[in-house]
Amino acid sequence: MEPAARQQPGAERRSLGLLGDLVGHRARELHARSGLMLEPGALGAWLLGEAGALLVLPSGRRVYCYCIRVPEPDLPSGDRIAHLLLALRADERGFATVANVAFSGACWRLRRRLRRPARDGLDTAIAAAKAI
């Protein structure tokens, strides 16, 4: 059975609209292409999705994959990502500490395991991390 918010066609569109208000134009474009949201931080470039986050270090060569989710099954995906984004902005170091590290290694190792839209997101995060 699908969660209630995902059954309502307008709920997802509204949640994505509100999420778009929190970020810039480039991040909205990336989300439209890949379903992932880019957020630069003090530790590197973050790539947020519904069920976790990637942190690309400023060198652009190393990535940490974090499993973290919003425990509300009825929320649309835009709201899930917005919760993670706001938690990250409130306390980046705390966010990295609370989340479970699922993978740590070279970006190229992770990239070859991703589907095309997620690869585009990772490439964008690598470029953003190098610019930090």
Beta strand count = 5
Proportion of beta-strand residues? 15-25%
Order of helices and strands: HHHEEEEHHEHH
The main β sheet shows up as: 5 strands, antiparallel
- Termini distance? 43 Å
Mean pLDDT across residues = 84
Lateral strand order in the biggest sheet: 1-2-3-4-5
* Helix count, DSSP H or I runs of 4 or more residues: 7
Q: State the domain count.
A: 1
Radius of gyration over all CA atoms, rounded: 14 Å
Based on secondary structure, the structural category is alpha+beta
Shape descriptor: globular
Keywords, separated by commas or semicolons:
52% helix; alpha+beta; 132 residues; single chain; five-stranded antiparallel sheet
Question: How would you sum up this structure, described in words?
Answer:
By secondary structure, this protein is α+β, with helices and mostly antiparallel strands. The protein has one domain (4-130). The protein contains seven helices and five strands; from the N terminus they run αααββββααβαα. It has helices at residues 4-7, 9-22, 25-34, 77-90, 92-98, 107-111, 116-130; strands at residues 37-40, 45-49, 52-56, 62-67, 100-106. The protein has a five-stranded antiparallel sheet, with helices on both faces. Strand 3 and strand 4 form a beta hairpin. Helix 4 (77-90) packs across helix 5. The longest helix is centred in the last third of the chain and has 15 residues, at 116-130. The chain is globular, with a radius of gyration of 14 Å. Residues 1-6 have low confidence and may be disordered.
